Structure formats: C-alpha cells, structure tokens
Amino acid sequence: MDTAAATGLTFRDATDADVDALVALIESAYRGDSSRTGWTTEADILEGQRTDPEGVLAVIKAPRSRVLTVERDGAVIACCQLEHRGDHAYFGMFAVSPALQGGGLGKVIIAEAERHAHETWGVAEMHMTVISAREDLIAWYERRGYRRTGKMTPFPYGDERFGIPQRDDLQFELLVKPLAQPAR
What pairing do the DSSP bridges indicate for beta strands 164-165 and 147-154? Predict the structure, then answer.
C-alpha cells in the first residue's frame, strides 16, 4: 500500500447524508472544466452530467451494494461503488478529487475495494466497465492487474442522465481482475 497516499484516510459506507457531496465529487472528477485539473476527465467525450442525486442514492440503497466513501480531515475526497454479483463484485462510480489525482490515492482505494470485496463477499473476481475510448484509464487499470475482455456494451445514447456524447463511437468494455485467493 502507498503509505504516503494512505495517510489520514478514513473508509466508510456512504449514507443518505453524503449524496450531495458524492455527486459534487463525481461531477468534478469527470465533467466540466474542474475535471481537467485531474487526468480522469471525460470532458472531451461527454458533456452534461455524469450522475445525479437520485442515481447516487439508488446505488447507496441498492441491496448487495455499498458506496465506499473515503475521507481525509473530514472531507470526502474519493468514492467507489461495490456491488456483490454472485461470484464476482462490480466496481464502479470511482472518483478521486481532481486536485488529488496522480499521487497514488487511486491505487490505495482500489486495493481497499478489492480487499473488502474478497474478504467480505468471498468473490473470486472484480468486474468493471470502462468507456473503451478511455485508453489512458484502461492502461491504468491494466497496471493494477485488470484485463480487457473485448466484451462491449453500448453507451446509453439519448439518456442524458449519463451525459451528452460528443462522438458516436462510445461503448463500454468489461475489465476483469482475479482477486487473491486465501492461503491454504
């Protein structure tokens, strides 16, 4: 674990009271000019919103789901969704404050999410979907042990809850990572 990035972090489950802070964090990490401070911006391929309060609340309330909220000095600085889906967990809604990106924090958070999913649910794999045009982001996940599967799902064109596409070739690719098996 990157101890410099992990200093002073608190991991907890999100509550209804966190919805506004989480929406603001997710929007800042992916959309608009504020997202350009970090490297995870989608501002060049999608305009409009990334999420909304109803969508975040639905994830918080969903059965077999949790939103792992990361705080430092009482401020929400990162989050991710974990959902138990049988033999695997789904990892999504990952956001790190743009001002803190590039310093190792993302590596610490994804490692904690993987540890939690494996230890709590006993799952053998973590799955996620990433916009296939996001080669830099996919490469980051590959360095964390995820592999591209080539399995694509269409982007929800016409549903502005997920943004307004600026190109017509967007789709999601499934990435998969086997999680560590316990020592026997």
Answer: unpaired
Please write the tens of the pLDDT for every residue from 84-99. Answer: 999 999 999 999 999 9
Count of all residues that appear for the chain in the document: 184
| Tokens 């958070």 sit on residue | 109
Distance from C-alpha of 84 to C-alpha of 127, rounded to nearest angstrom: 10
Contact 56, 68 (CB under 8 A): no
Matching residue, tokens 């020592």:
183
- CA 43 to CA 105: how far, in whole Å? 22
pLDDT in tens, 63-79: 999 999 999 999 999 99
Comparing 180 with 21, which gets the higher pLDDT? 21
pTM for the full predicted model? 0.89
Q: C-alpha distances in angstroms, 63 versus 49, 84, 102, 117?
A: 25, 9, 33, 15
Residue whose token pair is 């991710």: 80
CA distances from 46 to 41, 119, 126 (A): 9, 36, 26
Please provide the DSSP assignment of 103-141 as one string: SSHHHHHHHHHHHHHHHHH--SEEEEEEETT-HHHHHHH
